[in-house]
Structures are given as C-alpha cells and as structure tokens.
Amino acid sequence: xxxxxxxxxxxxxxxxxxxxxxxxxxxxxxxxxxxxxxxxxxxxxxxxxxxxxxxxxxxxxxxxxxxxxxxxxxxxxxxxxxxxxxxxxxxxxxxxxxxxxxxxxxxxxxxxxxxxxxxxxxxxxxxxxxxxxxxxxxxxxxxxxxxxxxxxxxxxxxxxxxxxxxxxxxxxxxxxxxxxxxxxxxxxxxxxxxxxxxxxxxxxxxxxxxxxxxxxxxxxxxxxxxxxxxxxxxxxxxxxxxxxxxxxxxxxxxxxxxxxxxxxxxxxxxxxxxxxxxxxxxxxxxxxxxxxxxxxxxxxxxxxxxx
Length: 307
Hints:
There is one protein chain. It is built from 6 helices and 6 strands. It has helices at residues 9-34, 45-99, 106-129, 156-160, 210-267, 271-298, and strands spanning 131-132, 135-136, 145-146, 166-169, 179-182, 184-185. The longest helix has 58 residues, at 210-267. The radius of gyration is 39 Å and the shape is rod-shaped.
C-alpha cells in the first residue's frame, strides 16, 4: 500500500462512517425525546400517510362517540319529561273515573275539575319549557314533529328519515348511513289538553244532569287513553333508539381502540429498540472519533522516511 500525504483515505473513511453513526444517533435521540418513530416524512413516508389517515378516523370517531352520548342524554331528558306527563295523565284519568261515580255531586266534580285543569296547564308548561341545549324537544320549532293523533298511524322510520327530523350523527364520515333519526312529537297536540275541549265539568253545576256529567267524563277518558297510548308508543321507540345508540357508542369505542393500536404500531417509538440503538451509536461514535484521530496520526509516519 502506497503512503501518501495529500489524500488521507483512512481519515475520509472514518469521517464518512462517523457521519452516518452521528445521524443514526440523532434519529434515536429524536425518537426517544418525542416518543414517536415518525417525526418527519423522511422517517417513513408511506407510514406517515397511513398514520395521518388513521388519526383522521380516530378524531372523527371520538367526536362521533360524543355525539352518540349527547343524543342519549337528549333522549333521556325527553323520556324523563314524558314520564312526568304520563304521571299527570294517569292522575287525570283517575279523577275522570272518580267523577263518573254516582256518589259524587256536581260540586264535587267541579272541585275535581280544578285539579284536572291545573294538570292540563302543567302538561302544556312542561311541553313548552323542556329543552336540551336551548332547543325545545317536546314542542320543537327546530325539527319536524308528529301530531299526537298521528303517532299510531305512521311509520317512525319514515318520520325519522325526513329532512328536518332530529338525527344523531354517529359516524366519522358523512352520509345518511352515519345518522340515526329520532321521531319527536308536539306534546301540545295531545287530545286531553284544554285546547281539545276536555274537562270533567262544564257550565253551572246546578244545571248539569248526572248523565251529562258522565258523558263529559267519558269523552275525557277517551282522550286521555288515546294520549297515553301515543306517548307509550313513542317512549317505546325512544327506548329502542337509546339502546341502539348505546351499542353504537360501544362499537365506536372498540373501533377507536383498534385504530389507535394500529397507529401506535406504525408511529410510536419502541423505547427498548431505540435505547439499544442509542447505546450502540454512542460506542461507535467514540470508536469513530478514535479512529479518525488515529488516521490523522498515520500521515505523520511518512515523516520518518524523510529523515
């Protein structure tokens, strides 16, 4: 092997290898600092594209989970208010049955009517004031609603699929397949309210015959029974949708968990591997520095030939 001074091949080789070792060490330190295997596109261009798509799906899925839970909360609010309406209708029905008994006179029926009328007003008040996030859900102007008389004669699926029907968006993408519609009802259209002319007593109690009083109460009973049937049918539908939403949320949580597990395998740094690599590159760097120094000293040996 020739001995030259102008070109120190040993030093060039050591410097090249040392530069590669330094880059590896920098990459390992970067990954250990951030906890990520992919910190820039150059680390894994294809992996970055896959991870970006997974993050998009995960973020959308997490929002869909919130949407589903919020919709469950709305249905629970609606169902709870409906339960109180049913309780009031049951009391009104109880008063109606009581007023039909011949042991009560018309003055007694007028007293029953006083409570009956207050319950009617309270049902209207509940319907007008029950809101979720500022939106009325029992007498809604924000969504299309059913008339109480149509509840048992219409397809809930048809109503829920309407353009203005309330819909829970429970997917990370758009499209109708990611929406669950809920049929709502205008509780002010109940037949047993004051607006329907339903009462237990009408006119001067002294001039109302027993047969007439029974007839008025019978009409009220029919209206109340129709309202109870409509609300029961709706609440069954709401309960079914709530159960569906709970399964939907559980599925979304499972999807999100598995997406993040897959993303982690691509994006996250393996600390055991990177720690070992860092230790290796530190040793190689020290060895490279030593060899570079040795290469520089080798050129000085040529001086011995000039003595």
